[in-house]
Amino acid sequence: MKMISRGFIVLCILLAGCVPAPANPPVEPNASSWPTWVVTDVAAVRPAAPPDQAATQAELKEVQTLVAGRDQAALQQIAYWDSGSPSYRWIEIAFAQNRATPASAPRVFRMMSLLNVAIYDALVVAWDAKYTYQRARPAALAPSLPVVAQHTNSPSYPSEHAVAAGAASTVLAYIYPDLAQDFLAKAQAAADSRVLAGAHFPSDVEAGLELGRQVAQQVIARAQVDDTLPAWDGVIPTGPGHWTGEKPAEPNAAKWETWVLASPDAVRPGPPLAHDSPELAAELQEVMTITHTFPIDQKAMWWQSAEGVFENWYTFASLRMFEQGLDANPVAAARTYALMSVAQHDAVIACWDAKYTYWSFRPIHMEPTLKTVFATPNYPSYPSGHACVSTAISEVIAAEFPAYAEAIRARAADAYESRIWAGIHFRHEMVAGKEIGVAVAQQVLAWDD
């Protein structure tokens, strides 16, 4: 009772304004020491110092003029780019582009890893610059300035939103060169929104855009190694138990550079069940005897969609970030997104390595009368790609948000069970895929320790 009374009195004093409420601590002042993926020397990439005091005062007047002239369109622009962490809109933009011009699953996972690694590494460098230069935000110099953006308690230079915009737009322009100008225009709009909001000086966003672009070029240099691999030789093994078909999807993905795995075959599983084994015959019976209800088939279809395969994991993580206030911690949010995307990227490479090592056939090859929920994917079966990538990303999310570990693992289980329901995989392929996913996630999380 005494503790309750004392707490009540303190609360009353705070509410009465007799003592100031405690200020929020600065956001991640030590983030410059966090590990990075492509940047080898954070200080070497650090932008030059911000303008001096006289130039800053001139910039402040420019900010005040822009803020005073805000109209409804400006407020909408600010609100759009202010939603979530700086990574949030760019992840949404990338997925929207994939829906408009669908790519193969390995290429989508690769795009997301390039995007999120570029944003994360650029923000680590930005955080080094912020706490090196300690530039005050505009409202610190003009307390009456009406700021209409969420407050990240960190120094002003460079702008975190501009950094993310520069990095993301440069990566997306590389992947979709015909749309490069559209992405660059979006980046400029994102950067401009921070000045309009009163959250940053013009030089903050200029330096941020340039820093993001610079780090993205390092990421792109890495991607170009994959893009210049020799063409697949076109040889498809023949014989009992082998996959049959033409133009299998992305055989070269088995040779792409990995982020954490020592090589694409680092976690390669043993061979699949023999084509004439009683164990495989029993697994075929499991597939053949699925009771196809509307809910089962609906789930199978959803997990085949872009939302099921790619987007839902990020939606889940973003909601947790909103709940926990991590949208106001840009570098921590970017770190989580990068770990998630790297896990799926390396998992799909490990999966494709096994697929194109064993060239294992699908259930429909063993039993041509089998009716599947949708067309069987045009590449070898073992191991299950859904099991690999869903397990990998769910294990990372479980580690990042342990209160939701059970929920996200249940979602991953649904994802890989859906491949049995659909009639396109055998049970042992799910088991092997899950083992790959767990192994990759463990290495991703170990990298971050």
Low-confidence stretches are 1-22
Number of strands: 0
What pattern of helices and strands is seen along the backbone?
Answer: HHHHHHHHHHHHHHHHHH
The first-level CATH class name of the largest domain: Mainly Alpha
Number of spatially distinct domains:
2
Mean pLDDT: 94
Largest sheet: none
Architecture of the largest domain, CATH level 2? Orthogonal Bundle
Fraction of helical residues: 55-70%
- What oligomerization state is this entry in? single chain
CATH third-level topology of the largest domain: Vanadium-containing Chloroperoxidase, domain 2
Number of helices: 18
Please indicate the percent range of residues in DSSP E strands (runs of 2 or more): under 5%
- Global morphology: elongated
Rg over CA atoms, rounded to whole Å, is 25 Å
Please provide a brief summary of the model.
The protein is mainly α and 449 residues long. The protein is built from 18 helices and no strands. Helix content is 63%, strand content 0%.
Structure in words:
The structure is a single chain. The protein folds into two domains: about 25-40 and about 70-225, Vanadium-containing Chloroperoxidase, domain 2 (Orthogonal Bundle); about 255-449, Orthogonal Bundle (Vanadium-containing Chloroperoxidase, domain 2). Helix content is about 65%, strand content about 0%. The chain has 18 helices and no strands. It has helices at about 1-15, 40-45, 55-70, 70-80, 85-100, 105-135, 140, 160-175, 180-195, 200-225, 280-290, 295-300, 305-325, 330-360, 365, 385-400, 405-420, 425-449. Helix 14 packs antiparallel against helix 18 (about 425-449). The radius of gyration is 25 Å and the shape is elongated. Mean pLDDT is about 95; it is low at about 1-20.
